[in-house]
Sequence to fold (223 residues):
Amino acid sequence: MRVAALYSGGKDSTYAVYVAQQRGWEVSRLVSILPEDPASMLYHVPDLHVVPLLAEAMGIPLVQERAGAGEEAELDALRRALSGLEVDGVLVGAIASDYQHSRVDAVANDLGLRVFAPLWRLDQARLLEDYLDAGIEAVFTSVSAAGLSQEWLGRRLDRAAADELLELHRRVGLSPCGEGGEFETLVTFGPMFSRRLEILRAGPRWDGSSGTLVIQDARLVDA
Fold:
């Protein structure tokens, strides 16, 4: 099975690539969409300029496509990125977003491609454990939910953070994997990485009750 992975640099899309490779599939391309809209509902937005370094660390060619504002423009960008790729299907890290899943399905169907979502509807508490057990390292790059303060920006996703996310899920209903847009992550290392991402300079951009970690400089270093 040869697939192109819709890739944001976050924990879910990275783990989906890992699962596919564990199944013996060839992930021949990473596809990253760069949306104009900072509040895009379809794509991950924070720190996408770092994704080429992650692709290099995994040794997988990257296809990037800029998307104009609005859903149709964002879907057109995905269509352009996938057109002409010699693959059997599209790999996504979607867990619970029917909005994203249905729209990626529609584009893939138009191109005669299948969509593979190995994390779809899996228990999110279990997934957090799976990420950590697999050796995925990540930091929080965006937060927008009750209980997630500015101090979460740049924090590592480790077992203590996972436990706090699960407690927030019990208390206020927060999605443990951030599927409601509560937070975003950026992976810095994983089991299929030859090198680790080192963030050299970054700072928070905070606005009221939400914010992002703006990465200004990063590099790959020996793992």
About this structure: Strands lie at 2-6, 26-35, 62-67, 89-91, 114-116, 137-143, 183-189, 195-207, 210-222. Residues 132 and 159 are 7 Å apart (CA to CA).
